[in-house]
Amino acid sequence: MELNGGEIIVQCLKDEGVEYIFGYPGGAVLHLYDAIFHQDDVKHILVRHEQGATHSADAYARATGKPGVVLVTSGPGATNAVTGIATAYMDSIPMVIISGQVPSPVIGSDAFQEVDTVGITRPCVKHNFLVKDVTDLAETMKKAFHVASTGRPGPVLVDVPKDITDPNIKVPYHYPEAVNMRSYNPAVTGHKGQIKKAVDMLMEAQRPVIYSGGGVVLGEGSAELRELTQMLNFPITNTLMGLGAYPATDRQFIGMLGMHGTYEANMTMHESDLILAVGARFDDRVTGKLTEFCPNSKIVHIDVDPASISKTVTVDVPIVGQVKPVLQQMIDLVRESKQRPSEDALQAWWGRINQWREINCLDYDRNSDIIKPQYVVEQLYEVTGGDAFITSDVGQHQMYAAQFYHFDKPRRWINSGGLGTMGFGLPAAIGVKLAHPDSEVACITGEASIQMCIQELSTALQYNTPVKVINLNNRYMGMVRQWQEFTYESRYSQSYMDTLPDFVKLAEAYGHVGMLIEKPADVKPALEEAFAMKERTVFLDFITDRTENVYPMIEAGKAHNDMKLRRAPGAPVDRELS
Amino acid sequence: MRHIISILIENESGALSRVSGLFSARGYNIESLTVAPTEDPSLSRMTLVTRGNDQIIEQITKQLNKLVDVVKLNDLAESVHIERELMLVKIRTTEGTREEVKSLSDIFRGKIIDVTPNTYVVEMTGPSDKLDAFINALSEESIVEVVRSGPTGIARGEKGLQV
What we know:
The structure holds two protein chains of two kinds.
Chain A: E1 2-4, H1 5-15, E2 20-23, H2 30-37, E3 43-46, H3 50-64, E4 68-72, H4 76-90, E5 95-101, H5 117-121, E6 127-130, H6 137-149, E7 155-161, E8 170-172, H7 192-204, E9 208-212, H8 214-218, H9 222-232, E10 236-238, E11 253-256, H10 263-271, E12 274-278, H11 284-287, E13 298-303, E14 317-320, H12 323-336, H13 343-358, H14 373-383, E15 389-392, H15 396-404, E16 413-414, H16 425-435, E17 441-446, H17 456-462, E18 468-473, H18 478-487, H19 503-509, E19 513-517, H20 520-532, E20 538-543
Parallel strand pairs in A: 2-3, 2-4, 4-5, 5-7, 6-7, 9-10, 9-12, 10-11, 12-13, 13-14, 15-16, 15-17, 17-18, 18-20, 19-20
Antiparallel strand pairs in A: 1-8
Helix pairs in contact in A: 1-2, 1-6, 3-4, 3-16, 7-12, 9-12, 10-13, 14-15, 14-20
Chain B: E1 2-10, H1 15-25, E2 32-37, E3 43-51, H2 54-66, E4 70-75, E5 81-92, H3 98-107, E6 111-115, E7 119-126, H4 128-137, E8 143-148, E9 152-155
């Protein structure tokens, strides 16, 4: 079969089983768009801004485990995609980005819409390629998918100069079944000796804790994590990225840890004598002050990326491998072993943990006559039966979503953890809805974040992806305002927008349903009404308490046992707000 | 501590910038970097000199290994090894100093490879500290130009850094 470059790319996508590509046409990719026009197998989703394309593809990958695919043109098409590529990179999301480039002969001449895409994206991709010969195209595409989806996943960019897709140059097409790259061989199973050592340490532990992260979601290790945790009766905490990998409603789950983690999770970490870290990377939002991080703990760390091990926190037993097979190896060893962790020690440990739980650190004023953002998330959880896919933007609303929507399944919680990209939520919701058309999808956002990619409401209409936008509108950049309240004596510098659009009218202008909700009593009925409209995208504008803060909070540079709580145990509810 | 890291890397455009970009992005320092193709033209060999404590060096080697283009690497500081650097020095000479420069160059096993009425160019190879010593032995005002390749190195013994 002889194909031109554009047809080769499309055929590669078909052979790779790609369902959707998210993109935006332009000069350098016109040949390729012509090839797309001639087929229906790979569906193209036309976004309204390239950043939206990357977030939609990224979220599609997060929700399915399959790589998301993006197609953008050269120059501004590529630079607009950079934020989304970096977002995927920080959270290790498999994604393949095809970018057009000016024709090879004019590369380097500052041609129209030319930018050094390979150079610009180098620090925020797992790998990138510049295609120099159309005969290399199919193999390069295969390598891109292979590198993106194996080992520690990540975005891979393929930059394709326009002459490579010249419709008049046809070459024989062959899509390799597999690729062999001498320089790329990610680890799979862990070192047996290390695993044995780790299991011995688990059995000896008096105050153990399992700390698991996004790697368990990415590595499909949830079932194994659950089995091991329950066999051992250890407490388990998840990172922001790891939520859902262990069921949040299970008794052994002690909540999220870190900056806005629960009191019990952070205290358990701090007081533990053994940490089993699984697919987590000891990020600064998790560890707090490094020199005071878990002072008495031995650490076992399972990660597919050796560079994540002992990067910020020195680990006692490193295990390099995919979490799923390594956890299975551990389960097998625990099962064979006659030894079990001391029941007395565990009972005492759970006793302490339950005391910390009694502080009820997530409690908030439920009698307020202003809508509390936490209440909206709680009601959303009720109305959706806890089974919706939730995307979020970045800020206070993201933390409320993480704290109050109890994720029981992996891949249900879709947010930008590492890069913290405002504007992620709405295009992400569209990508998720395309992946799971029969599931409920809600985007928890705020009035600041939503405006960063609001143009994608138009995409949602074109492709009929009915998502529910839960706008927690406090008329502030809430998290910025919170930091300013705590550390800048409430000098709210530029964290307030004097003008906001009428979101109801805006939603209607985009062809959707808009709802304004101002009273706590209306929250649940409004959500029920919105979710009853199965075929419509509904924008719910909740006017929430402007002064509400996210608690608990470990302020930057402080340790796990130095948390700011809403109130000391026994103290009256809430403070007076300035 | 000073480390000398040998890297086998795919000889592809952009491979060098992946390495140098990694160092600048993560705030590691590079003292010197040399690179040239090997006997297999699809591979380049890079020798990189850097400094850092054990934790930093461990991260550097892990991050380098993570680059998809890096095939293999070896921290030469971990074993007995040989280091050599090439230096070319242009030295201002006069009737009175010519003999002295010549004999100094001989002592350091340098070769005079270019002569003009007023200058010598000396070629010298050796460990970096030997080259430093030669420079220090010259008077400052006599040095016109110094060109150094940066160190390259190889491990002693039978084992090699190969694919």
